[in-house]
Design brief:
Length: about 425
C-alpha cells in the first residue's frame, strides 16, 4: 500500500466511529464491541451461504431456509444475482443466463436483475416478481417467518452470474470478463460504474416488498448488506487525490448505503487477506467508520494453506477485531469433501471461533437443498415444480446437505458437524443462556 504508507493503521483505527448500536426493542441487529446484539441479547452468527435463493422455486427456497433453521443457523448469506447484457441479445451476455440446469448448478431459466438497455444507452433494472428482483420478496418474507436473518451481498465481483464483470462489458465492448487487465480497477474507479452502483443500491434499498409492504431498508429479516461479494479492487492503484482505490471505493459506497439505510449493518463482503499489497489490510478496512464489521473468506484448497493455518488466521482476525473494537465474521469457508479429514477440519475451525472471544461467528460455503432436476423450466411454470433430489456437486465438493445418502459421505457428515456447532453457538442468542458457554 505505497500510497498510504505514511498513515499508520493505528491512526486510522483511532478515527473509527462508535459501534452501530440497536436498542433493546429494535428489530435490527447491532454491534457492541467485537460482538453483535439483537433486542438486548448477544447475537452469535452461525449459518450457511446459499447461492440460488434468488432464482430457485419457492419450494427450493423453502427447503434451503427450513434446513438452515433446523440446523440451528441464525444467519444465511446470499448474493443478488444476476447481470446480463441485453435481454434481446443486442448486447452480448457473457454467460448462459437461460440455462436449464438445476438451480444449484446455475439453472436460472431466464432470471436476471440487471441488464443494459441498448435503446436508451443505459442500465436497466428488472423488478419482475416472476424473473427479477421481485423474487427476493419471497426470500425475505420466508426468512422472517422462520426467524432467520439474511446477509445479502448487493452484487458479485465474479463473472459466473455476470457480476460486475458483465457491467464492465457494458461500457467496454472489448472487455474480457476472465482476464482483462482492467479487471481490478475499472469498475471501482470509473465514474460511470460508480454512478451505476449507487443507482442500483438506492433501487434495492428502496424497493417495497410486495409481500410485507416494507422497503428492503426496513426489513427486519435482513442482518447486513455486503457492498459486494469479494470486491477485488486493486489497493495499490490510487485515485487522483492519492487515496488507495479500494479504500476510497469502500469508504464512499459504504457511506452511500448508510445515507439511505440507517437500520442495517454494512460490511465489505471481502476476503480479508493479510500481507497482500493489492488488497486493503483488514485493520485498515475496519478503521473505515461506515463499515460495521469485518469479513474474511478462506479456502485452503485454493489459498495454499493447511487446516491448522486456518486456526491461526481465526485468532489473527480475532485480534484485529479486538483492536478495532468491531466484530469479525468468517463469512465464507470450505474444504473439499474429497479430503478424508473434511469434517474434522471444519470442526476444528468452528470450535476455534466459538472459543475465541473476539470472533463473532461463521457462515459456511455452502448449503444446498433439494432441487428440481434438469431440465428445469422457465417461470412462472417452474414455480409448481417440486424439488425431488439433491443437486449433483458442481465439481468443487464444497456442498453440504441434509442428505444421509450423500456421496461422498462427508457431505452429510460435515453437515452434521456444522449443524451441531451452529446449535451450540446460537444457544447464546436465547434469553437465560450465558453469552459464553
Amino acid at each position: 500500500m505505497k500510497a498510504s504508507a505514511a498513515v499508520p493503521a493505528a491512526a486510522l483505527l483511532g478515527s473509527a466511529a462508535p459501534a452501530h448500536a440497536a436498542g433493546r426493542q429494535s428489530p435490527f441487529v447491532g454491534t457492541d464491541g467485537t460482538g453483535f446484539t439483537y433486542q438486548g441479547r448477544p447475537f452469535a452468527v452461525a449459518g450457511f451461504n446459499n447461492h440460488y435463493l434468488g432464482w430457485g422455486t419457492r419450494a427450493e427456497v423453502d427447503d434451503v431456509l427450513e434446513t438452515a433453521k433446523r440446523a440451528g443457523a441464525s444467519v444465511v448469506r446470499t448474493i443478488l444475482h444476476s447481470v446480463i447484457g441485453s435481454p434481446d441479445g443486442s448486447v452480448p451476455s457473457t454467460w448462459n443466463w437461460q440455462s436449464t440446469a438445476d438451480a444449484s448448478n446455475m439453472g436460472m431459466h431466464g432470471t436476471y436483475l440487471l441488464s443494459w438497455d441498448a435503446a436508451r444507452g443505459t442500465w436497466a433494472f428488472n423488478d419482475s416478481t416472476v424473473n427479477g428482483l421481485g423474487r427476493w420478496d419471497y426470500v425475505i418474507w420466508k426468512a422472517e417467518r422462520l426467524g432467520l436473518k439474511l446477509d445479502i451481498a448487493l452484487i458479485d465481483f465474479w463473472q459466473w452470474a455476470g457480476g460486475i464483470q458483465q457491467v464492465c462489458r457494458w461500457f467496454l465492448p472489448d472487455y474480457n470478463v476472465s482476464n482483462d487487465p482492467r479487471r481490478y480497477t475499472f469498475f471501482f474507479a470509473d465514474e460511470r460504474t460508480r454512478a451505476f452502483y449507487r443507482d442500483w443500491v438506492a433501487h434495492v434499498l428502496n424497493r417495497r416488498n410486495s409481500l410485507t409492504g416494507r422497503a428492503y431498508k426496513d426489513e427486519p429479516a435482513i442482518f447486513a448488506w455486503d457492498l459486494m461479494n469479494e470486491p477485488e479492487a486493486d489497493n495499490t492503484k490510487t485515485m487522483p487525490d492519492g487515496r488507495p482505490l479500494s479504500e476510497d471505493w469502500i469508504s464512499r459506497m459504504s457511506a452511500y448505503v448508510k445515507s439511505i439505510d440507517a437500520n442495517h449493518l454494512v460490511c465489505v463482503g471481502g476476503e480479508g487477506f493479510y500481507d497482500r499489497s493489492s488488497f486493503v489490510d483488514p485493520a485498515r478496512e475496519l478503521a473505515i467508520p461506515t463499515i460495521d464489521f469485518g469479513t474474511w473468506h478462506t479456502y485452503p484448497d485454493y489459498h495454499g494453506i493447511t487446516p491448522a493455518q486456518v486456526v491461526d488466521l481465526i485468532h489473527r482476525h480475532g485480534e484485529t477485531a479486538r483492536q478495532a473494537g468491531k466484530p469479525v465474521v468468517l463469512q465464507e469457508f470450505s474444504y473439499s469433501a474429497l479430503h478424508e479429514g473434511q469434517p474434522a477440519a471444519l470442526r476444528s475451525w468452528v470450535d476455534a471461533i466459538a472459543a475465541d472471544r473476539s470472533s463473532a461467528g461463521w457462515l459456511y460455503w455452502r448449503l444446498v437443498g433439494r432441487v428440481t432436476p434438469a431440465p428445469t423450466r422457465a417461470f412462472p411454470e417452474a414455480e409448481n415444480d417440486l424439488p425431488t433430489e439433491f443437486a449433483p456437486d458442481n465439481g468443487e465438493h464444497f456442498d453440504v446437505a441434509a442428505n444421509p445418502d450423500a456421496t461422498p459421505p462427508a457431505v452429510w457428515d460435515s453437515f452434521q458437524v456444522l449443524a451441531g456447532a451452529a446449535r451450540q453457538l446460537t444457544r447464546r442468542n436465547q434469553p437465560g443462556v450465558p453469552a459464553r458457554t
